[in-house]
Amino acid sequence: MLKLNNIIYYMASIIPMMMMVPLLCNAASYSTPIRHGSFSPSTDSNMKRSATPVQGDYIQFIAEITLSGQPFVVQVDTGSSLLAVSSSSCGNCDPGPNSFLNLDIVTPISCQSKECAADNECNTSGVCAFTVQYGDNSNITGSIVSTLFGMAGLNSTAQVGAITSENPSNFEAPFADGIMGMMLSTDASTATAFSTLVAANDIPNIFSIYLDFTTGGELILGDITEQYGEITYTPLNYVANTPFYQVTISQMFIDDANLGFTENSFCNVIIDTGTTDLLFPQDTYQRIQRYFQSHYCNTEGICGSGNIFLGYGVGSDIRSELPTLKFNIQGDYTISVSPYSYMLVSKSNGRTVYYLGISYLPVTTTSKYCQTVFGYAGMRGSYIVYDGENQRLGFAGNGTVSSDAATTKTWMMSGHFFVLATIFVSILSLSV
Q: Which of 249, 262, 380, 404 could form a disulfide with 341 if both were Cys (CB 3.0 to 4.6 A apart)?
């Protein structure tokens, strides 16, 4: 998903807001404390392993939840905090896989309630309200309700956004009913639906995600597994008022070639499942593009007027001809990103097309708000532990492509996400 950061960037007058992490316009303020401790995989045979399958396409991945017993499918997003689904009061919401949230079985949060943040809106009925603006100029509005939230066999009472208006009308439809933010939660002011599960079920503030090279994987709540290999941890880089999962990348290699990238080439690095692409500062991206076009020009779609760096797709599966990207992170671990991860696959009208899942932000490495967003395109084949308990991220799996990964399973991409991503790449490339 194309999303907006807390800092709004302006790029000419064409795309005024194109950062990829969401701006919750009426969110409560964030605070910094987080407790520290140790954690290892559960060995208690009486402890239920709270895991749920995830699936999706090459743009997003989704998981199943319940709200007051009503089933929903939501996009899993580690770069935002709000759980929101389309409600029965939405007049312009396209239907997702399930029925709209029935407002008769949830409890509205009053504006006078302590659960309603001081800087939230108040609608005409005196109910706490929200507005979220996204970087592709889409937005959702609605009311805050209290409901029984269930996921992977765990339950809690959580505050949920009941969407009453969305723009465009297919904000998450047809593949999902809404979005579930799983941003870093440190205390009540940064509560997420997952943090309510932590408190209600006495589980550690930790979850982990594995994504395979097709359309599947799993999400584990309150526990970890070592079935994907030994886990290497790196400390989170906390930046005030931005509770994202941020790490340090010290080097990047292409074809095992050291191109002279340093920590300053990437700035603050956000690990975000809700962003589709790998997004770099403009000047870092240009160096990556130059390397590809000087070493892989004989591969279809790399050079020429209709190349993948301009947002064009190619009809041939070129993934086996492209290099693996390697990123060294603090903690002595290398994230390997295969072309089977960073090349996005779309199937429409019987035709399969391959697009580049690497783009850039309207910032440079010298910009005040320079950052890199490590999106969905960089996570396939990797197992990532989001450890809020110890303020760190863990990595395993190393992006290894299995023997059956070349057998591509494609999904129809949501035009809401995909078309905007292509337009974004195309317009920015014109300014290079």
A: 380
